[in-house]
Amino acid sequence: MSLIEVKDLQVHFPIRSGFWNRISDWVKAVDGVSFSIDPGETFGLVGESGSGKTTTGRAIVGLEQATGGHILYQGQEISLKHARARHAYNQNVQMIFQDSLSSLNPRKRIETIIAEPLRNFEHLDQDAEKIRVLQLLDIVGLGPDALYKYPYQFSGGQRQRIGIARAVATKPKLIIADEPVSALDLSVQAQVLNFLKKIQRKFGISYLFISHDLGVIQHMCDRLAIMNHGRLVEVGSRDDIYNHPLHIYTKRLLAAIPRVDVRHRQEHQLERLRIEKVYQEQENDYYDQNGLAYPLTPVSKTHLVALSPQMIEKQDLKLQGVD
Ligand SMILES: Nc1ncnc2c1ncn2[C@@H]1O[C@H](COP(=O)(O)OP(=O)(O)OP(=O)(O)O)[C@@H](O)[C@H]1O
Fold first, then answer.
1. Which H or E run contains 11?
2. Model's pTM, two decimal places?
3. Which residues form a coiled coil (predicted)?
4. Residue 12: CB within 6 Å of ligand 1?
5. What is the 28 CA–ligand 1 centroid distance (Å)?
6. Would you say the CB of residue 13 lies under 6 angstroms from ligand 1?
7. Are both 130 and 75 inside the same structural domain?
8. Distance (Å) of CA 183 to CA 108, 126, 191, 192, 213
9. Is the domain of 76 the same as that of 108?
10. pLDDT (tens digit, 0 to 9) for every residue of the chain, 323 residues total?
11. How many domains does the chain fold into?
């Protein structure tokens, strides 16, 4: 059974205007997104800025109110009405944020920051709580001297580790990692990514890994979804998507990864221009009249892609092993 299943998730934000501040329109930040994550799996969500990745993550963790759709945790619908189920869910689903400086309360010491989720969910006595905080700091490679310091006294990479310690405090089954390394230097990025993998192996955590960086996603994820304008355009295994992308938007994103090898740089540049031209010419074949991706079409049992019926015919896609 999947650990988490997101079905037709919608998060629409009202736009208000005029003297009476009436709703004049809606921003469809997430508009019918479906995917599932298995236990121990890392599922990537990738797309350009504004495509709806963060809003999807925030809706799953309960920081944003979904306006439609369903979220199932271990097969159970998560609803605000069932307080006890919601409490257990909140303990098991945690989030790591991009900006560790603003996500850690600057007025609180690290001890209090890491102890907060323990206080909400475990109600330990003072000594036991302190031991757990020290263990968590040790897991993320920080010593006991960190206990009484404030977030500003740490480097970006160290602060991100503190955010990770806070997220794993309640022994969650799923962590939503929203751009966890994009604010860090390249060398620190690798450290934090490998560290996330290490704690995944240690605790059997699943990740929803949100990033616009396809290199990071390739390094981290087993499967991934490509998001554009609040919808998914392609979902598949890492190898399927990186080696056989089907949607032109995915091809365009992959072609935008800079190449360092001088020998192939020119070929790559030409390929990039070719893809851009196809994208401009065929955009209408990939999106409906509202500019939104068509519903996902299965191409194999694990590879789904948003293509118009005409496009499926044109590309003569062979449906392999699809029931
Ligand atoms: N609270 C809000 N009210 C109104 N619109 C919002 C709100 N939050 C997000 N949006 C809009 O929803 C869309 C998706 O935003 P979101 O932050 O989810 O995208 P993203 O893919 O995570 O982008 P980035 O990579 O830049 O963080 C954007 O157009 C954004 O302006």
1. strand 4-17
2. 0.89
3. none
4. no
5. 9
6. yes
7. yes
8. 22, 34, 13, 11, 12
9. yes
10. 899 999 999 999 998 888 888 888 889 999 999 999 999 999 999 999 999 999 999 999 989 999 999 999 998 888 656 777 788 888 899 999 887 778 899 999 999 999 999 998 888 888 999 999 999 998 888 999 999 999 999 988 889 889 989 998 988 999 999 998 887 788 788 888 988 998 899 889 999 999 999 989 999 999 999 999 999 999 999 999 999 998 989 999 998 877 666 667 777 788 888 888 888 877 777 888 788 888 898 888 889 999 887 777 766 555 554 54
11. 2
Rounded to whole angstroms, the Cα distance separating 104 from 247 reads 39
Q: Is the CB of 190 under 6 A from ligand 1?
A: no
Q: Do residues 201 and 303 both lie within one domain? A: no
25 with 152, same domain?
yes
Query: Would you say 170 and 118 are in contact if contact means Cβ atoms under 8 Å apart?
Result: yes
Q: Which ipTM did the prediction report? A: 0.96
What CATH number does residue 15 fall under? 3.40.50.300
9 and 73, same structural domain? Answer: yes
**By 3-state DSSP, what share of the chain in percent is helix, strand and coil, each rounded to 5?**
45, 25, 30
Do residues 235 and 251 share a domain?
no
Q: Which amino acid residue places its CA nearest to atom 4 of ligand 1? A: 13
In the DSSP assignment, the letter for residue 2 is -
Regarding whether 276 and 236 lie in a shared domain, the answer is no
One-letter identity of residue 34 = S
**Sequence-ordered strand ranges (E) for 51-115:** 68-73, 76-77, 93-96
Residues 230/48, Cβ–Cβ less than 8 Å = no
Domain that holds residue 204: 4-245
Task: Name the strand (E) or helix (H) holding 286.
Answer: helix 262-286
- Output b/e per residue, 53-77; b: 16+ Cβ within 10 A: bbbbbbbbbbebebbebebbbeeee
Q: Whose CA is nearest to atom 30 of ligand 1?
A: 50
Q: 262: CA distance to ligand 1 center in Å?
A: 37
